[in-house]
Design goal:
Blueprint: E1 6-11, H1 19-31, E2 34-37, H2 47-56, E3 60-65, H3 80-91, E4 96-101, E5 115-117, H4 125-142, H5 145-149, E6 157-171, E7 174-187, E8 195-200, E9 216-224, E10 229-237, E11 241-249, E12 257-266, E13 283-285, E14 288-290, E15 292-296, E16 304-311, E17 323-329, E18 333-336, H6 338-343, E19 345-351, E20 354-362, E21 368-374
Parallel strand pairs: 1-2, 1-3, 3-4, 4-5, 6-16
Antiparallel strand pairs: 6-7, 7-12, 8-11, 9-12, 10-11, 13-14, 15-21, 16-20, 17-18, 17-21, 19-20
Length: 381
């Protein structure tokens, strides 16, 4: 799996005695595919102005707080520029990770848990482990789920077909979502890599899922060319998401295939009612604005995609209220791809009031969402 990149503002002192220290942290960032920027170069703007612009354009701020001016009590102040950059990032709701040299006082920075360090022991294995874990943790906090999936295409296998069924189901007068996906992989060469999969809530008010049960997850091998199994490691699990690494054992070789299904269920995969919709902007499509949208995003070369979305009769959604679409997708839909809509076979049917949307397409585009948009109903009183 290729590592996704993130952009971080690297806030530090430019004193000569801190140069090696900065290089130490910068090297770790580079190794973790974290792109660091700062105002060490020449710019038309003054450094504080340029720093604010660069911080605002970054996903996080990493601050190296070294000793500058010594105070009467023997403690030290950090660089004024670093202090100002931390404060600006906090004011912009940009995540901050602080590495603070022993002896530096932190009055006024109680909103961040700092990691203290002694520059003479940074190379010790236990200290190095803490530094790397902290920087990697910052990266995982700010990276989007879809960025994690970008590097999943490979020449070691292709997907013969994906069959995806997304359903809204009724239970005890309420509704929940069940997503079932069956995928068959055909291996073109030996493959030892792990395969990433995940499901995330979309458009829901996050506070609705607080203290709720984690998303249900099930994995099942349907068939294989020989005795292949899948070991899965859950990386992240909550009521709003699940992220999983899959490892096929023993490692597949050329000519192998495996077919497996993943099933998740949760009331929070999409908003059910209009009042459940979060504060994020609606999806803008040619057909109008929509509060809800979901679909399937191919992340590996795929020969055939079948996608079905079902709503129960009791929910009251009509055929005309659903809009199929295909769009280029990163963290959101960037633009619609009308040629893909025309190429796909799409049917919207009503079976005794139950709505079923079917989409079928050969060789779907990577990192494009094949899905539907709709506006949820108002909750019945």
């Amino acid at each position: 799996m290729n590592s996704a990149n993130v952009d971080v503002f690297f806030s530090c002192s430019f004193a000569e005695e801190d140069k090696k220290l900065n290089e130490f942290f910068y090297a770790i960032c580079n190794a973790l595919d974290i792109r660091g920027s700062n105002v060490s170069g020449a710019f038309a703007q003054t450094p504080p102005e340029k720093a604010k612009q660069m911080i605002a354009d970054s996903q996080a701020l990493l601050a190296i707080c070294t000793r500058r001016k010594e105070m009467l009590d023997g403690r030290y102040l950090m660089s004024d520029a670093v202090r100002d950059e931390i404060a600006f990032a906090y004011g912009q709701d940009i995540p901050v990770l602080m590495f603070v040299e022993d002896g530096v006082q932190l009055a006024g920075f109680n909103f961040v848990t700092p990691l203290r360090f002694d520059r003479n022991t940074l190379g010790d294995p236990d200290v190095l482990e803490k530094v790397i874990k902290s920087i990697h943790g910052m990266k995982m906090e700010v990276i989007s789920p879809n960025d994690l999936m970008i590097g999943q295409d490979t020449d070691e296998f292709y997907v013969e077909y994906n069959r995806a069924l997304y359903e809204m189901k009724e239970v005890d007068g309420g509704y929940y979502w069940v997503y079932s996906i069956t995928k068959r992989l055909i291996f073109l060469k030996p493959c030892k890599r792990q395969i990433y999969t995940g499901f995330w809530a979309s458009g829901q008010k996050s506070e609705l899922a607080e203290n709720a049960e984690p998303m249900f997850f099930e994995l099942k091998v349907e068939s294989a060319s020989r005795d292949l199994n899948i070991k899965h490691t859950i990386e992240k699990h909550s009521a709003e998401c699940i992220e999983v690494l899959l490892k096929i054992e023993p490692s597949p070789v050329e000519g192998d295939y495996i077919e497996y299904s993943t099933i998740v269920s949760s009331p929070f995969l999409n908003p059910v009612w209009d009042e459940d919709v979060g504060s994020s902007a609606p999806l803008h499509l040619e057909a109008g604005d929509f509060s809800c949208a979901d679909g399937f995003i191919p992340i590996q070369r795929t020969k055939k995609l079948w996608f079905v979305f079902r709503f129960p009769r009791s929910y009251g959604l009509g055929k005309h209220e659903i809009v199929p679409f295909v769009g280029s997708h990163t963290t959101t839909v960037n633009y619609e791809v009308e040629s893909e809509i025309r190429r796909a076979n799409i049917q919207i049917e009503s079976y005794a009031g139950n709505i079923e949307v079917k989409m079928e397409v050969d060789s779907p585009l990577l990192h494009h969402i094949y899905g539907i948009a709709w506006n949820p109903k108002k909750k019945k009183v």
